Amino acid sequence: MEEVYLNEFKEFLAGTKNCGEITQYRYGLAMKDFNLNQLSQDYINQYVQDKGNNSQVRGAMLSFFEMNKIKLDLPPKPTGRKRKRVIRKVTQDDYERVRKHLYSKSFKDGLVFDLIYQSALRRSEVLTIRINSFNWELMLKDPTKHCQLTIIGKGDKERVVLVNPETAEKIFDWFAKRYDYKDFIHSPTLLFGKMRNRKVWEIVHYGSIEAIGRDIRPHELRHARGTELVRMGIPIHDVKNYLGHSSVATTEIYLHRSQDESIDNIQNTLINQ
Predict the structure, then answer these.
(1) Is pTM, for the whole model, over 0.70?
(2) Of 4, 122, 227, 238, which sits 20 to 30 A from 42 (CA to CA)?
(3) If you ran DSSP here, which 8-state letter would residue 38 be given?
(4) What is the H or E stretch that residue 221 is in?
């Protein structure tokens, strides 16, 4: 789709459909390769299928139909249960190697990775962090304790997570070098500025490939941290609240052993019989 029509489409999404910036970006991306000169039912069917026939593509296409008053149909929705992505194990060595690599590239990249893991954050939650989200005054009273960080989770619900003293001190020192103490601790400025959700994914994904030769997904970091908390003996309901799960059933996933761990456990038991 030509740039002029793409901009017109985004204006329609923002005005008539009242879509946010992320939806405008995703729908625009879905329609970027659309050829207006080949408008036909066969072309629509093929285009949607080639783009994955997912909810994002279907939503973009329906909005495009509405804007241009086009009376064509979308291909049938995919049937069957969606295949869940396997959560792969992230070892402490993996974490340290990727962390070191990202900090060597950029302080902010390393910090994004650190906060997702340490505070078990969703990548969208990273983008809600403001400078005054940290309880700096409490941290300065006792620098040995983990720093409290208030984030906005799913459903715009606030919750408090923890950042280790070393990372909190890095953040504080980074701002202290640039601003007066009293000026920045109450600042509502976003910690990572206008960073997008996709950028968070790219930092973790490409940084891990460069550091350890395989990709790590942000949610795998969150899962690794949640599993650690459970294994430390923290009550499951406390972990549930910390992770921002709506149901303890979701948190109970972190209690499950991996297949390798189960085999090792059975093997060790059999050897000792």
Answers:
(1) no
(2) 4
(3) G
(4) helix 218-231
Tokens 């139909």 appear where? Answer: 65
How would you write 131-174 as a 3-class SS string?
HHHECHHHHHHCCCCCEEEEEECHHHCEEEEEECHHHHHHHHHH
Q: What is the pLDDT of residues 55-96, one digit of tens each?
A: 888 888 899 889 988 888 888 877 655 555 667 888 899 999
Tell me the residue type at 48: V
Contact 44, 72 (CB under 8 A): yes
Per the document, the length of the chain is 273
**Which of helix, strand or coil describes residue 17?**
coil
Structure tokens at 222: 């969150």
Is there a contact between 170 and 226 (Cβ–Cβ < 8 Å)? no
Which helix (H) or strand (E) element contains residue 49? helix 41-50
Burial of 98 (0-12, 13-18, 19+ CB in 10 A): buried
**Among 126, 129, 112, CA closest to 205:** 112
